[in-house]
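so the lab meeting is tmrw and i was supposed to have these ready like two days ago... anyway. pasting both below. for each one the top line is the aa sequence and the line under it is the structure tokens. i havent really looked at them closely yet so no promises
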Amino acid sequence: MQIESCFNLVQQHLAVLEELYRGFSDSFYNSNDVHSFNLKRMTISQLEANSVLFETTIKYRNKLVNYQLIDTDLMPLVKKDWPQFRFNYRTKLEDSFITKLQWYLKRDQPFYVFKSFNDFFGARLVIPDFRSFEQKILDYYVAKSDNMIVRAYIRDDSPRYHGLHLYIGSGNSKFLWEFQIWDKLDEADNLASHAIHERRKEGKG
């Protein structure tokens, strides 16, 4: 695969995700019963102690799970006959959110909502030989100012995990969506690492 083909593949998926993000955000944040707050300045412990804002967070997750356009727009990408590539997505389960919340609250240093709860929605694209292109793609999104990628980095916890993370967002008062891009050769180790991390949050490892 050439860099142009890889970049086009990422862009095609990202365009759909960004459009979904805009549509859902407009629907959710324009509701009269939603209380906006600065996610970048609020710690996890402050969120947990504020019943109104905590309820807004739960409401966000619940409405996201029931946002039918996600399945309508993304299932064709999941089912597309790509023998070399794989795409999937998920919305965070309430139990998983509560487990993550409790895990953060038990830790000493303060954690902020903006970076901690950035995966109520998550999508993943697996591409063969992606490591050959990931730095150039990262550089592009770090430098580009006219898109909705508000955070981008390569997470490298070798030998357990390696992937490019792109976060879709719009301002400090809106939750982020996560888009991970993996090299196919890293997929097995990344999935194993994720499973270990989830068990630790549940106090099982």
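ok protien two:
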Amino acid sequence: MQQVRTPHVVVVMGVAGTGKTTIGPLLAARLGVPYAEGDDFHPQANIAKMSAGTPLTDDDRWPWLDAIGRWAHDRHGLGGVVSSSALKRSYRDRLRAEAPGVVFVHLTGDRALIEDRMSHRQGHFMPTALLDSQFATLQPLEADEAGVSVDVSGDPGEITERAVAALQKLAQPSL
């Protein structure tokens, strides 16, 4: 597969279990840019809360989003892919405040499919019990936000190719 170079920083977003950690690195490889795992930006206190099945508050999320935003800012003009749930518009606004040029890839899918995938993954701190709170919090991308929605049915390669194709269409000026 041919690499598609991009100067953009792409935030792969969506509820837990949509495949951000799987699709993010694959997308980064296709785009020829580095990948950063959003979970790595969480302070230990956040991980402990989520591991215990306690949803994070906005106050818990602000430092995490700021850290991701700083990474994205530092990659401006160079390109990169980073994962972040970015479930609320206010979270995406916070990321754009740090890195105005970010583009979002919203991984979307049927709740049953996502729950099934979550139940089969190992070594992750996010329990399936928090999936309902994730869906309740989710505010899909709005028309004025730079980004695309990509369905997560199929295998990771198919999902990645849909994301690349959607990003390419987004980058083309409309006639």
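from a quick look at the 2nd one: DSSP finds seven helices and five strands in the chain. Residues 57 and 69 are 18 Å apart (CA to CA). will dig more after coffe
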